[in-house]
Amino acid sequence: MVVVFGSINLDLVAQVTRMPLPGETVRGQAFATAPGGKGANQALAAARAGASVKMFGAVGRDAFGAAALANLEASGVDLTGVIAVDTATGIAMIHVDAYGENAITVVAGANDGAHAGQVPDEALRPDAVLVMQLEVPLAEVMALAGRARGTRIVLNAAPAQALPDELLRMIDTLIVNETEAAFAAADLGLPAEPEQFALEASARYRCPVVVSLGSRGAIAAREGELIRIAAPAMDVVDTTGAGDALVGAVAAALDRGVSLRQALAEGVAAGSLACTRRGAQAALPTPAEIATLAATL
């Protein structure tokens, strides 16, 4: 079982030729809305990768709330732990340029009302994988981590922010991208170079550390060992949600009990495949697609 405690958003996506400069208005080519939020994306990615998933988070009592949950519901994710609050559903405003790169502004909204008490003790089993990010209040993430001792905790430290040492010593796997790794390195007094950061953070906190490297794949460090998975050559359409695809696929793989290398290969495969389609949740691959590509990595 994969248990996800995190954000649930509705994405507002504009396709543009290039990103606007400060004070500039650019003409967009297309606009769409789509369910999103790192928590929801990762929950759906884990479900699409074949895991049984329970989602815990918060949406508003507005039209965006039902829309934000639509894909999770359709994919069989257990939503009984999602609460409705009076604050508006969280949103992400996303610009995607002609090269598939994105710039995102997130408004937390109802996500600030998500709390650790939503997750019952019976969901925090030793055979479960608990996935958390940082788009819900950090205090609630820490509170849930404290209650989840014995459960395998995967923390995707995104968006980047200062991380309490206490939290990092409670988790079982840390996942960051290059930007988040550099931020954490500066905050924690560790080397900025991704490989050295992963090795030293893993040694300090006694857990595997995964750093996704975009088009260069991903690395993982554990007990002094460095695992590297190169990304396959893909026709990139949209990088939105690729990191969430990796996190969800890694969580699903760990839930199945595979090796860290195999989990990383499946994560890189899922993230790479997600880049070949538009959108975050709409781009998430199937178990067969992940397995086929991962076997080549």
What is the CATH first-level class name? Answer: Alpha Beta
Envelope shape = globular
Number of strands: 13
As for the number of domains, it is 1
- Major sheet description: 9 strands, mixed
The order of strands across the largest sheet is: 5-4-1-8-9-10-11-12-13
Given the structure, what is the number of helices? 9
What CATH architecture would you give? Answer: 3-Layer(aba) Sandwich
> What is the CA–CA distance across the termini?
26 Å
Query: What percent of the residues sit in helical stretches (DSSP H or I)?
Result: 25-40%
* Uncertain parts: none
CATH topology value: UDP-N-acetylmuramoyl-L-alanine:D-glutamate ligase
Q: What is the N-to-C order of secondary-structure elements (H for helix, E for strand)? A: EEEHEHEEEEHEHEHHEEEHHH
> What is the CATH superfamily label?
Ribokinase
Class per helix and strand makeup: alpha/beta
Radius of gyration: 18 Å
Q: What value does the average pLDDT take?
A: 95
